[in-house]
């Protein structure tokens, strides 16, 4: 088989895999959701249950530490329901296979070029860890959003507590009336306490899920106030003022970093064009003379 035919065959396999990833996985997830919604209302035959993708085989291609790391990243990213951990593990394998197929196709077309071989060696592990990188990026954005929303949420809870509500009622009000990841985490923490999880354990679980230093400081202050009988309104007022000061300091720090960040684009793109515009005619006149 000539390298051209081999390359075309690999290209067709990569295209088929991409189509399956874009269409088949989504439809399989929709079938699984429909089966879960219909559970208990009608009888689902065994054949329909077998059609739902399981992705249990993907765990054999990932170590225990890798699965634990993915679970941690998945929790920090907000546990998106449309992308459960088994599907992410399967996507890691699919991305690895797609990167390998593309690399082999490039090697077949270029007759084993050394640079293409190096690109393939780099591309294969990057494809395998791509879902984890996406989860990490989403988790970082979620942590930033929680840090920005924390001061305003504490102000709302402080106003509700001073108006006569209990701490958990104020938390429920801030969670149900708010929008964003912090409101979702507050609602989940209240749900955990309502099903019997101790308050301290629910707050510690909130710390682990979010991994935001400011929120960790707030939960530790609430735990200490609950243990030593400190007024919760005083704790909320102190924490809200401190979070507001930290948010302002972070904004000032980001503003002070702007001149340093703009220096490289200025040196590479703006100053050369300015020098050409100003000194270009003079240089041309000197050359003519």
TrEMBL record:
Subcellular location(s) of the protein: Cell membrane
Keywords: Cell membrane, Membrane, Transmembrane, Transmembrane helix
Main localisation: membrane
Domain of life where this protein originates: Bacteria
Entry keyword annotation includes Membrane: yes
InterPro entries in the cross-refs: T2SS_GspF_dom
All copies of domain Type II secretion system protein GspF, residue ranges: 154-279
Segments crossing the lipid bilayer: 6-28, 89-109, 115-136, 262-284
Membrane disposition: Multi-pass membrane protein
UniProt KW Protein biosynthesis keyword: no
PANTHER family the UniProt entry points to: INTEGRAL MEMBRANE PROTEIN-RELATED, PILUS ASSEMBLE PROTEIN
Protein name, UniProt field: Type II secretion system F family protein
Organism listed in the record: Kocuria oceani
Lineage: Bacteria, Bacillati, Actinomycetota, Actinomycetes, Micrococcales
